[in-house]
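Quick one: examine this chain and its backbone structure tokens and tell me how the chain folds. Here goes:
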Amino acid sequence: MKKTTGRVTLPSQQHFLQETKELMERWGADALRDSDGTKLDDEIKQLDAKIYTTYFVARNHNDFAKQHPEEMQQLYLMSPYYTATETTLEIPFLKGYFEEQITPDYIHDPKRWWEVIDRTTGEVVSPDYWQVDEATNCVTMKQVEQWHEYTVSFLAYMKWDPTQMYNHITNDWGDTPHDIPFDVRQPHSNQYVKAYLQQWLKENPDTDVVRFTTFFYHFTLIFNDLGKEKFVDWFGYGASVSVAALEAFEKEKGYRLRPEDIVNKGYYNTTFRIPSQAYLDYIDFIQQFVAKEVKELVDIVHEHDKEAMMFLGDNWIGTEPYGSYFPSVGMDAVVGSVGDGTTLRIISDIPGVKYTEGRFLPYFFPDTFYEGNDPVIEANENWLTARRALMRKPLDRIGYGGYLSLAYKFPKFVDYVEKVTNEFREIYDNIHGIQPYTGLKVAVLNAWGKLRTWQTHIVAHGKWYKKAYSYHGVLEALSGSAVDVSFISFDDVIAKGVPEDIDVIINVGDAGTAFSGGEKWKNPQLISILRKWIYEGGGFVGIGEPTAYHHEGRYFQLANVFGLDKELGFSLSTNKYFTEVIENHFIAEDMTAFDFGESMEYIFALNEATEIIEYSNDGVHLASSGFGKGRAVYIAGLPYSHENTRLLLRAMYYAAHKEEEMRKWFASNVHCEVHAYPEVKKYAIINNSTEKQVTNVYDGDGNKRQVELEASEIIWEDYT
């Protein structure tokens, strides 16, 4: 592979000049950055590279924060559930929380801003029946209903930034001061962040890119009394709450939010919850405010002839890049952590910025770079999964984060990253700005739609969860497949119908979640629009518990379309006769074994017309059914694998009645893929595995030839 340079950002640190120069040469880096906990020497800043400097807007300014403790960031929290065994009840509402992170807000009247709820009835307890003891951090209740459960929703100040807390604990920073986050909605803080940025820019002339990490409000990350993560939601708006925000919301929207609108029964409006209208209004309210304030900071940066870059993480709440207001802020670039193909597409698809950049794994932290461990294993896995997505929509830059001195101690890792950076530049030089060939247009349907593009089934950024991996695999498969993917909401369909160019709709998730849809499927208009669209030729793929909401004798509200439903225990008296498996089916042609992940039980066929492809343990796990001119496919779960990526591709082509078109720019071997770029008459054959592979390759006319690829190899070809 030809040695190239550029488009790579290297982390560096103090007293590491010569090694930095060496790795810049080997990895072809043209930019240098600091990290949380590191600084760059003046000598390093004078190297021939663009200098990124981490900038914290609302943390890492403790001298200011200590002068205005009333302007610390706030959030609503909920106590554990407490059962009343007598007619009085005492609730120690801080139990289970990390008191180094939070402290109750006693500045603002708890009787006005807190809420005690009888969780057995759902009723709010009048403030006349409870008192707060500030000395013990307890709520004492009188005249309670015995054997009912109660909770306290309380307003707290956040006195330690969660990301710094995590890094502090992970890297054992000892007596390093705790960063106190403050709220730019408050008057002193608002003035301070703008004045400080002006001064900082004057004092940092060597900085080329101001890397905002990020802006004002951290995603919801609360620690328990052991200093471990208690609750994490990468999309959570909980830390954007304050008395000032609640008062401004009421003035703007015309109604008052309750604590329960934020606490949400202790679920804190996790992205898996179907958002209430009040919560959607609150998100919109915060995004408008954040966009306005961010634009002022970006303008200041531009006045100093520097670039503004946003880190997609940490304090990113309110700057969701697929939201309505993000384009107005004028950001030059977005950088984020790449955990897999899906997280890469989150970054690379962001519209309205000059360039996008991905931080590849592993971070150069001691939890990975320690004696006896091989960081190449994680790096290789990360690169191969992300590379599929790069072939569809490449990032403009890649880089790494952490302590360069740690990585430098692992020569095999240094060698591997040299290979990765060269391969990245080869991909970018071939296809940046080029629209790849797509055989289908696919829409993922859920409650969030475009706002959470490529962001379904994520709890914490890029992490694995048992309850979600069978669904996140769908997005991971799509991230590198030769299909055009969009994200639409139930409200979009109700208001505008299905976009005309969509071939297939995918609905995936557990019943009751925002991704499956829950009570949204009770809307007869939604049901009618989709039934009509499928009947007239549309394709529908459902995974897990699609369209699930128990209503009028149906669980799957499109049961008549799928040709199957789920047994809930109410119709056991009705025999289920249809269990015969079809011998050969287009969808299963490449499968030697099925993996449905956590799967589903008790799915049964409604009639003999349902094409049962996999039936085991007295249930259907893979099936298809015709509905008018359209088709529907059901899959019980789809964890990511090369085999399941092919299964999903076949399911989509079958649902769209386009089976004959699948073998265009196609590889027969499931471990390989073909990506074509008609604008430049190029195509790439890619081996996604770590072993040698042989595959038949089909060109755009369906002609085939056999190709042998080395482990992880890419072969580039021109065509006429």
Q: What stands out?
A: The two ends are 24 Å apart (CA to CA). Residues 124 and 677 are 60 Å apart (CA to CA).
